[in-house]
Amino acid sequence: MKGKSGGKDFCGFALPGLFCFAAVVIVPFLYGVYLTLTDWNGVSNVKNFIGGTNFLSVLKDAQFWSSLWLTFKYVVVVVIAVNILAFAIAYLLTRGFKGQNFFRAGFFTPNLIGGLVLGYIWQFVFSRVFVGIGEATGWELFGASWLSDPTLAFVALVFVSVWQLSGYMILIYVAGFMGLNKDVMEAASIDGATGWIKLKKIVLPLMMSSITICLFLTLSRAFMVYDVNLSLTAGAPYGTTEMAAMHVYEKAFTSRQFGVGQAEALILFVIVAIISGIQVYLTKKREVEA
Amino acid sequence: MKKQVLTKCLASGLSVAMLATTLSGCRFGFASDPDDPNEVTAEEPIDTSVDTFQYDTSLSGTSITLLNSKAEIQTALVEMGKAFEEKSGVHVEVMPVTDGDSPYTKVVSLYNSGNPPTLSILDTTDIIALAEEKGADLTGESWTAEAEGYLTEIDGKIYSFPLCIEGRGVIYNGEVIEEALGQPFDPAAIRTQDDFVALLDRLVEAGLDHPISMAKEDWSLGAHHLQYIYETYDGTSDGAAECIELIKNDQLDLTTYDRMDQFLNMFDILMKYNVAYRDPLGADYDEMAIDLADGKTAFWFNGNWAWPNLAEADAEEEDNYGFLPYFLNNDEGDFVNRQIQASPSKQIMLDGIVATEQEQAAAKQFLNWMVFSEIGQQMLVKTCKIIPPFHNNPYEPSDPLSRDIYNQVQAGTAFNASAIVPNDHWAVLGAAMQKYLAGRSDRAELIQSIESYWDDQG
Fold first, then answer.
1. pTM of the model
2. How far apart are alpha carbons A119 and A234 in whole angstroms?
3. Which of B21, B285, B446 to mutate against chain A (most A CBs within 10 Å)?
4. For the residues A121-147, what does the mean pLDDT come to?
5. Between A92, A127, A238, which is nearest B282 by CB?
6. How large is the ipTM?
7. Residue ranges of chain B assigned to CATH 3.40.190.10
8. Strand B91-96 and strand B63-68: pairing?
9. CA nearest A231 in B: which residue?
């Protein structure tokens, strides 16, 4: 009887969700895996099975590996910068001063702007406003557009991503700070814990659940960055800021090698899944309850 | 208390900085694509009093779709569709390719979703990739006779309607040159690369510090500049295809190919006199139009599609703009020093897979209407502001750049060569050209990039 009703409940509640999940995630994913084994060009009605040839082509695609390496560097810098900045600002915004909600909204605003628009706004800032400042002041740093130098274009990309992603992470950290048990904090203060010790021994362990979420979100978003990459630099100058996701798109749609592009996308997915999985496992292990 | 004030100040400072940078984007324009739909200029009246076109009344009530990848004529195409509907009863739904989508990606996704457009405006490369599999055979259509020399044949069949001729070269602003030199400017007097350099030097002496603008965009460098090496092989599309085959098969060594060396010599000249010589990769496309219209520069390497940008920068249709060839050497007899490149660019493909016979017939009638009806002929030139490749169209374009191309095509001082290259040619080799433009690679490295690109194409 119990089993029967459980089955009914499962069908009633989980099946619609499972169906949607399968339809929009599982099936396209499996179809994508199948495409990596074919020579499909995106148009043809015929898909010839070619085994692992596409994966061999990926191995030979030097540009893919260099864009993947660039993506790794980008991810490391962005994940660290976003989380430190968001954590610090969230800490400031939970001190209880007047008008802090206004500031929270202010910091969140960049997150509401789509990545494409954001990229174009900052392209204008880097190419025109900064150059204008450089011309007026003679500062060498702003003498030429940041987007025309490979290193500075990378810095610009990181800067904009940090600016965009921080707002969302601030919200999560703010929620985490607000959920901190006041009794525990008070007990720590009575026991003489202050400043750094309090942060390290009390606040950080209690905030681990927020850190897990924020690290996961920033990791996956940074790995899959495309919109800001496209609108801010579009890979320029001379392809030096082309991240992995953009390279995959270019391979599939511009070079019209769907199979190879799909194989690269699959490799990127596996890398992101493994790294995110390890991160969630490690940070979850450190989560404690008050 | 003190700590709280400090915290508040810090938070407000950061917040204001973030908001200010957010809002700053709303106040200024962005660097735009040359195909900006908002940059349409004043409309010219269309005379609808005469219309001898024979409409097929059985097609009235049919609805067809047109995928438009030429954003600057979106509004004009909608108007044209309305005019055609009023006369024929066939509804034409014009679908734009939105920003961020490539025309090919868009049309492929529409095919894959089982809902392709009846007609698609695409680049020649896309037509070649799709036509045999998806396109309807248009070989027997009557307009083909009017577009001789501008048709793209695939295995002896015609699958596309050539929509417009576009040309490129070194755009000059005659008034700026005349004002600087204090004498009339005759573009025909510049016949060689040395003549061109001498003119540039005189302009520099006259106070125009760096008289040339050149775009840093990969589509400009990879497609419009670099493709001269194929297209000037003998000045024909067949010659360009042969040149590409020879490079692919390692039968043409780019290190000794004369056109490669000549092309780089011309490119070096453009680089030397580039107004953005300090930061060539920071050059802004919109500013180039303003610089040319305002007289800060006298030349801009571009094509007739740049007119909307110039018009936006207050250039008038009566102004003296035109094209100089892309001078490759000092031989006055070489066609490249006398002729500019002009060839059909955008083409229309008719879907032969999903569209019903009725829809295909309606679409064919629309194509014929553009070529043979008095209204269609006028609207192509006056509303869409394009140069149609059809010999029977008597209307002249009104803007000076298109007019110059039109006149040069009529006078035979334009060569019709269009290199059919893989779709990623402009992106991959555009990046290699950017590196060369920035001075971060030399000729040997650039040539190596081009050769390895073609090696990868098998």
1. 0.85
2. 10
3. B21
4. 90
5. A127
6. 0.83
7. 57-164+345-390, 167-342+418-456
8. parallel
9. B100
